[in-house]
Write a structure and sequence with these properties.
- This protein is of the alpha/beta class.
- 46% of the residues lie in helices and 13% in strands.
- A hairpin with a 3-residue loop joins strand 12 and strand 13.
- It starts with a helix and ends with a strand.
- The chain is built from 18 helices and 13 strands.
- The chain has helices at residues 3-10, 20-27, 48-62, 75-78, 93-107, 122-125, 130-137, 142-145, 149-157, 163-179, 191-203, 240-248, 255-261, 267-279, 284-300, 302-316, 338-346, 350-358, and strands at residues 16-18, 34-39, 66-71, 116-120, 183-187, 210-214, 327-329, 336-337, 362-364, 367-368, 373-374, 383-386, 390-395.
């Protein structure tokens, strides 16, 4: 495949490529390039937001290049300061390792098994001695660090910045040295870190990498970036029904970005859809169905996406309860404490369960449940529902 043909796919929907001429030159060398993506396991799920850059990594795989996916089990314990107004809470090694085990299988739902290296950066960072750390810190100056907007803002406001936070971009840059990265991918908020990788590589006598960033996907609320801490996300391992239903809940004005980044549709197709929406030839509701099918099919296949749409129609268009729902065994407690039941049945926190109950978001057989306690006999065999899409059948 020619360099121009590769560029048409690899540059699709990108935010920044720095420097672009270096990317063109590297592709023109005719060898498999080493394309790095580092992700810190700081939460249990891989979201559609993370999947944006993971799918771009897959594009490089499809062109015959080598995907080098770095699980940042060491850097996650340092904490990425990008776009932070204060020091990030540190995670323990056990927390990070638990998250890492969760996300590894989810990465494989997106990436090809061929041309794939998965590494943990504790392999090289945990063994750095003081001499190695001093050599690394010599790659950058304090003035360079304070050119970064979030650091500059915090410095001006008198908000503390730890030396450890200064180390984070240097450690990320050292990852690029360790794996000999030709290109590094990241979200648009990572450009400064990726550029620091170029500085670190030059310090170690290497040809600097190309920095390629992708836009940040907005969450299902349509306003803020998708994030697990904001509870506005869809995980790539969520059930097809849940994935389809959540996608159907996004605001209409978020659809163009989701068509590009979440569904990864061809640019010509996205342009036709946008033109149809603008002219009124396409209905927003039907377009959103097309989007939801496309997103769900990416992770579960066409058959499961079709079944998810049918389940959605049964619940929302026909007002019914799905036929195929999981059973949840009630405890022997009588009367049943309803917030505790909600918590256990749906894996929620106690405070979240109480909030949903107070807001009238909990139903039994389609009727709103408000009581804090309920006789056990009144619950056995009935369907407990939280929100619009979550159901369990209560059994004794």
């Amino acid at each position: 495949m020619s360099t121009d043909e590769q560029l048409s796919l690899l540059l699709r929907y990108t935010d920044r490529v720095v420097p672009r001429e270096d990317l063109v030159a590297k592709l023109g060398e005719g060898r498999p390039l080493r394309v790095k993506l580092g992700l810190d396991p700081t939460a249990p799920s891989v979201t559609l937001g993370w999947a944006v850059v993971l799918r771009k990594l897959r594009h490089f795989q499809e062109m015959g290049h080598i995907a080098v996916l770095i699980v940042g089990d060491f850097t996650a314990r340092v904490g990425d300061p990008s776009e932070r107004a204060e020091t990030r809470k540190r995670l323990t090694a056990d927390e990070v390792n638990g998250y890492a085990e969760n996300v590894l299988g989810q990465f494989r739902k997106i990436l090809l098994p061929e041309n794939l290296e998965i590494r943990r950066n504790s392999e090289w960072l945990a063994s750095l001695d003081m001499a190695g750390i001093l050599e690394l810190t010599a790659a950058a100056t304090v003035a360079q660090m304070l050119e970064r907007s979030d650091f500059a803002n915090r410095y001006q406001e008198g908000t503390p910045i730890s030396i450890m936070e200064f180390l984070y971009p240097l450690l990320q840059g050292y990852d690029s040295v360790a794996v000999k990265a030709d290109i590094e991918l990241g979200g648009s908020d990572q450009l400064w870190n990726l550029m620091m990788g170029r500085v670190v590589q030059e310090r170690y006598g290497m040809q600097p990498q190309v920095a390629l960033t992708m836009p940040i996907l907005v969450g299902v609320d349509g306003t803020r970036r998708m994030g697990q801490s904001l509870a506005n996300y869809i995980g790539v391992d969520e059930a097809p029904d849940e994935m389809f239903g959540k996608t159907m809940s996004i605001p209409d004005d978020a659809m163009p970005q989701w068509l590009r980044l979440a569904a990864d549709l061809e640019p010509d197709e996205v342009a036709r859809i946008e033109a149809g929406l603008a002219s009124g030839d396409l209905h927003p509701g039907e377009t959103k169905r097309r989007l939801a099918r496309a997103v769900t099919a990416l992770y579960w296949g066409d058959e499961q996406a079709t079944a998810a749409e049918q389940a959605f129609d049964q619940v929302f268009k026909m007002g019914g309860i799905p036929d195929d729902i999981e059973a949840f065994s009630l405890t022997e407690e009588d009367p049943v404490t309803v917030p505790g039941l909600i918590r256990d049945a749906f894996g929620l926190s106690g405070s979240e369960a109480r909030r949903l109950l107070t807001q009238g978001a909990v139903k039994v057989d389609g009727e709103i449940l408000e009581a804090q306690e309920a006789p056990r006999v009144d619950l056995v065999g009935r369907v407990l529902q939280v929100g619009k899409r979550r159901f369990v059948r209560l059994v004794g």
